[in-house]
Amino acid sequence: MKRHLFAPRAIAGVAILTLCASFWPTWTEAQESAYPKPSFTAGGALIRPDVRYREWVYVGTPLTPNALNPPEAPFPEFHNVYIHPDDFDHWKNTGTFPDGTVIVKELVLVGATNAVSGNGYFQGEFSGLEITIKDSERFKDEPGYWAYFSYGHSYPLADTSEAFPTAACNACHEASAADDFVFTQFYPVLRAAKAARGGRVLNTESEEHQNLASLMMDKTADITQPTADTPIIESAIPTEVGELFKYLQEATYKQFTAKESSNHPSLGPHTKVGLPVRVFLDPKMDASLKADEATHPEGAGIVKEMYDADGNLQGWAVMVKTAADSEAGKGWFWYEITSTTDGSSPVAAGNGVPLCSGCHTIGKDFVLTKYPLQ
Ligand code: HEC
Ligand code: HEC
């Protein structure tokens, strides 16, 4: 995918669409969790949590039966894996595991080998418990900040566990796990949550993400060009380019009552990932988002201010719906400019700009901002 980035001809809409699906707003609401996370002894051993982890989000059950791994599998036999609900939420929203993530793998022996449903492996008794925790402070020396714990493979389980040496657990996870030391390839629940984000995960540090940001600066690339005419409609935010730039410079949109209360780091490549942005909704868009409409009405629009690292305004991104039908982005007017004084060379200006609409297609009728506004 990366290879294609700077060869505009090769950038099929589909490629961009997949690529762009990796960007997604991730503001996690700070909220009290109903489920406590495991705690540590003063000496740094992890205390075995009570079994309420069985009420966390269940993600899958790898099975390594002893029968196929004689005389005994390293982790016999069923592995029921649970992730803390807060961490699952974060994964679902961003495709990343946050600092503090806890994943439990509970071992269960094969019980019966047949049932009225047929021959097979059926879960018998609980037999063991392993836990992994990502913590960039406590485990700052572990690769990926993941530490691994085990309470044994027979009952009664140990009450506490020291972190295993890196080579014992971490190294294999680092080498073979699909996502950030976690074997998501074997957890359909995590895979499905990731697929819902377009099958790709957010990694704002990635070279690919940064390349996309530079691509957005390349005003000559095909995908920055409009693919449809902009119809003349009534809208609070003008769609005629000269008029729009003046409107932005005069900051008329600041009169909208629906606006984010402060700047927050951008998750999209607008100017550069991580730089502050702030979103303003015109009344039509605000009403539509408030009513949780699946599609937004003609005339509804959004202005996003883009700041530099020092907090100086350095441009705007704008989208205005110009037809009831979004027509894969052609029913939207897209505009982005990275200057506050010179309106002559916008990054994009017009309907159906593939670069913009491709990425925004994962939004709610192309809108990615989280509502209610923060
Ligand atoms: C040889 C490679 C290997 C080693 C060594 C290893 N694991 Fe794993 N681990 C896996 C695989 C593969 C999975 C997923 C499939 C499964 O459970 O069989 C897994 C899954 C896990 C999970 C569930 C969360 C996740 O990351 O997918 C935990 C917890 C875990 N292992 C703990 C440990 C502990 C504790 C040790 C060290 C005592 C350890 N592992 C050593 C391969 C390994
Ligand atoms: C790589 C993905 C990506 C591309 C390409 C992209 N955007 Fe965005 N855009 C985002 C994300 C993510 C947000 C959510 C807010 C944030 O974090 O900046 C967003 C927010 C916005 C917003 C605020 C409203 C909303 O939907 O949240 C506007 C307006 C906007 N983008 C316009 C544009 C325009 C115009 C273009 C094309 C020049 C464009 N975008 C290209 C990812 C993208």
Features:
Chalcone isomerase, elongated, alpha+beta, disordered N terminus, binds heme C
SSE layout and pairing:
Blueprint: H1 13-20, E1 46-47, E2 57-60, E3 78-83, H2 85-94, E4 102-110, E5 114-115, E6 118-119, E7 123-134, E8 146-150, E9 160-161, H3 170-176, H4 188-195, H5 207-217, H6 241-249, E10 258-259, E11 264-265, E12 276-281, H7 283-290, E13 301-307, E14 313-321, E15 332-337, E16 348-351, H8 354-360
The protein binds heme C (HEC) (2 copies).
One heme C binds at residues 20, 23-25, 212, 266-270, 277, 279, 302, 304, 317-319, 334-336, 347-348, 353, 355-356, 359-360, 363, 367-369.
Describe the model:
It is a single chain. With 374 residues, this protein is an alpha+beta fold. It folds into 2 domains: 2-18 and 205-360, no CATH class; 27-195, 3-Layer(bba) Sandwich (Chalcone isomerase). Helix content is 18%, strand content 21%. It has helices at 13-20, 85-94, 170-176, 188-195, 207-217, 241-249, 283-290, 354-360; strands spanning 46-47, 57-60, 78-83, 102-110, 114-115, 118-119, 123-134, 146-150, 160-161, 258-259, 264-265, 276-281, 301-307, 313-321, 332-337, 348-351. The strands form 4 sheets. Strands 10, 11, 12, 13, 14, 15 and 16 form a 7-stranded antiparallel β-sheet that branches. The protein has a 5-stranded antiparallel β-sheet with strand order 2-3-4-7-8. Helix 1 crosses helix 8. The longest helix has 11 residues, at 207-217. It is elongated and about 75 Å long. The protein binds heme C (2 copies). Residues 20, 23-25, 212, 266-270, 277, 279, 302, 304, 317-319, 334-336, 347-348, 353, 355-356, 359-360, 363, 367-369 line the site of one heme C.
